[in-house]
Amino acid sequence: MWSFFVKLCRTAVTMLGSAILFWISFILLFLLFRTKRPKNFPPGPRPIPIFGNLLQLDLVDLLNDLRKLSERYGKVYSIYLGRKPAVVLNGLQAMREALVTQSVEFAGRPKGLMINHLSEGKGVGMTDGPMWKEHRRFALTTLRNFRMGKPSMEERILGEIFHIVKHLEKNAGKSTDPQTLFHKAGFNIICTVLFGTRFKHEDEFLQLNIRHITENSKIINGLWGMIYDTLPLLRTLPLPFQKAFQNMRMIRKSLADQVSQHKESRVPGEPRDLIDCYLDEMEKRGDDGSSFSENQLVFYLLDLFFAGTDTTSNTLLTAFLYLMTHPDVQERCQKEINEVLGEKEQVSFQDRHRMPYTQAMIHEIQRVADTVPLAPFHATTKDTRLMGYNIPKGTIIIPNLSSGLSEESQWKFPHEFNPSNFLNDEGEFVKPEAFMPFSAGFRVCLGEGLARMELFLILVTLLRRFKFIWPEEAGVPDYTPVFGLIHSPKPYKLGVRLRGSGDLGA
Ligand code: HEM
């Protein structure tokens, strides 16, 4: 009797197991057919239910996989992030057709990804519609006014450069760790614009915020960011992507404190910085139904803060890595800088027009730095067509900016560091169309002007004063960047020497 009962139980368990297996297979098969590409959609690898193409991609070396897919499927192809299809744009022609020719159709932002959840649908970088338009216009106008105002943007940047020079002078004759030096400078420059304040390099506010910003730019679009975007079921689990949310809460808190302090100390109509300008604007608009609000201001600051710190700093870090290891390029820039500036006390942004080689060097640095390789993803705002394919409204668009910066048909030296990529036969500075590190179209980086000014003033001032040497003990330089929303070079040491007054860098 007992053995009959055990047998019966075993049979029941086996039947239940088979039934569960049957249902799982059924659901997977159902999903497999449901994740079929829409009609005339760009081709791509076959997605797996639930995971999409996640398991077929190397998330640590994603750019290499995206390049291989482009060789197989063409300049416009699609991949699945979980169940969501995403169209990847490769090379100048596809990006120009989408981002420039059809700027309106391709200027949206996707919904439901980690980057949206971090910004809670507010701010400027990840919003669309009237909120995005109003805030983008306001930022562009305010930044333009600051460029002319007192102190001018140039004066704010030169003020910060003074502190970099002091730090390097202390380290002349030695090697120093530049990892945080340029982040601190970039952070302080954006802080003088947003809150009219700079922070000492030892300041806890500055150090904590830089740590949170750099951690987040590695998580977003990195391995854990992709897992978050692809597998919604895992989002509430205590996995490493939770760190990005923790960091964001901390940055938000420090920005909200800045807004409160400004509300107490401001004189309406006499703005000192962007926060004051925004508060004036809020008062002017009153209850007219506009998207300006104190809560929105915090997310707005957060976007500018985030977008303006890690980008310029990592470009500068890349610059010194290449300048140290290409002394011929460094010396040619120093010679040009000496000739153009002569006895002049400080460089000004206007001087760039007389420095074609230095301009070419800076652009070449931006090309190889490839700072924002995949841009924050876009989305289509309506049903549209691109290079013969149908792309429905709301599709995620991944502009592979990286692909254009090394496209073989567009560059004289696509795979080497060579400022001649930006010089014509007469030695004049020229900018090829495929140079899009700031992206293009309606979403083009709104801090481009500020970033270009920072890069020029910082690089010229430092090259004029110092010679940078790759430390002997540092071994072979590694140029492979660490992937994330923002590329950064691997840590290295900066060898610093003071230049003499007649030194041409030789
Ligand atoms: C070398 C430095 C920089 C690079 C390479 C860079 C690059 C980019 C790229 C590729 C985008 C994405 C555009 C798109 O979605 O297609 C972007 C957006 C943006 N950048 Fe920059 N950026 C830099 C510096 C800055 C600075 C200094 C600021 C601060 C004012 C800034 C503020 C922004 C903002 C707010 C957006 C979002 C624009 C929008 O969605 O409308 N960036 N940037």
UniProtKB/TrEMBL annotation:
<dbReference type="InterPro" id="IPR036396">
    <property type="entry name" value="Cyt_P450_sf"/>
</dbReference>
<dbReference type="InterPro" id="IPR001128">
    <property type="entry name" value="Cyt_P450"/>
</dbReference>
<protein>
    <recommendedName>
        <fullName>Cytochrome P450</fullName>
    </recommendedName>
</protein>
<dbReference type="InterPro" id="IPR050182">
    <property type="entry name" value="Cytochrome_P450_fam2"/>
</dbReference>
<keyword id="KW-0560">Oxidoreductase</keyword>
<keyword id="KW-1133">Transmembrane helix</keyword>
<feature type="transmembrane region" description="Helical">
    <location>
        <begin position="12"/>
        <end position="33"/>
    </location>
</feature>
<dbReference type="GO" id="GO:0005506">
    <property type="term" value="F:iron ion binding"/>
</dbReference>
<dbReference type="GO" id="GO:0020037">
    <property type="term" value="F:heme binding"/>
</dbReference>
<keyword id="KW-0408">Iron</keyword>
<dbReference type="GO" id="GO:0006805">
    <property type="term" value="P:xenobiotic metabolic process"/>
</dbReference>
<keyword id="KW-0472">Membrane</keyword>
<dbReference type="Pfam" id="PF00067">
    <property type="entry name" value="p450"/>
</dbReference>
<keyword id="KW-0349">Heme</keyword>
<keyword id="KW-0812">Transmembrane</keyword>
<keyword id="KW-0503">Monooxygenase</keyword>
<dbReference type="InterPro" id="IPR002401">
    <property type="entry name" value="Cyt_P450_E_grp-I"/>
</dbReference>
<feature type="binding site" description="axial binding residue">
    <location>
        <position position="445"/>
    </location>
    <ligand>
        <name>heme</name>
    </ligand>
</feature>
<keyword id="KW-0479">Metal-binding</keyword>
<dbReference type="GO" id="GO:0016020">
    <property type="term" value="C:membrane"/>
</dbReference>
<dbReference type="GO" id="GO:0005737">
    <property type="term" value="C:cytoplasm"/>
</dbReference>
<dbReference type="GO" id="GO:0016712">
    <property type="term" value="F:oxidoreductase activity, acting on paired donors, with incorporation or reduction of molecular oxygen, reduced flavin or flavoprotein as one donor, and incorporation of one atom of oxygen"/>
</dbReference>
<dbReference type="GO" id="GO:0006082">
    <property type="term" value="P:organic acid metabolic process"/>
</dbReference>
<comment type="similarity">
    <text>Belongs to the cytochrome P450 family.</text>
</comment>
